[in-house]
């Protein structure tokens, strides 16, 4: 359970939490047809798998580079050699669709005096452009990228960026993510963690350390008592 009145900062993962990656399927179905969904799933899978390699293997926390490498693999798997399509697919990460519950929920938290931030594997440029495209800037106090830590989630140094930026204890931070591995990493860092399960996915052993589970961000303000 979230401790009532204890949260001073609410931090959100970006991709799959605030930003709707599944919307890319319909966006690129005219180009890819029935291959749209499997290609995008493989792309996302490889993107994460590369980011999870040990830091000594992935020497630079550059999510844009990792995303491009993963797309190269996914397109090759499906026999696609189309540089223009590659460019447009990459561009989609700079103008992602936001879930419809995002802006109103974040603004409600800020109106109640809770600071809001994104903590993401995305580069600062990816986050800046995505937030700008969605008009979400007024709902956020900070954008935190793993570039500042030099490693990807779920390395502890990434979550420490929140404490350093806001000068708060881990227990005063609510961290929200739709990704089980991210939930686990944040809980290990001492945050009060909320798993947003938008699709009603069956719970696994992960996410361990979950303080609460919600189906929509619209449920978050009440959960925090605001």
TrEMBL record:
Its EC number is 3.8.1.2. The keyword Transmembrane does not apply. One of its GO terms (molecular function) is (S)-2-haloacid dehalogenase activity. Keywords: Hydrolase. It catalyses: an (S)-2-haloacid + H2O = a (2R)-2-hydroxycarboxylate + a halide anion + H(+). The keyword Endoplasmic reticulum does not apply. Belongs to the HAD-like hydrolase superfamily. S-2-haloalkanoic acid dehalogenase family. Catalyzes the hydrolytic dehalogenation of small (S)-2-haloalkanoic acids to yield the corresponding (R)-2-hydroxyalkanoic acids. This is (S)-2-haloacid dehalogenase. It comes from Paramagnetospirillum marisnigri. The lineage of its organism: Bacteria, Pseudomonadati, Pseudomonadota, Alphaproteobacteria, Rhodospirillales.
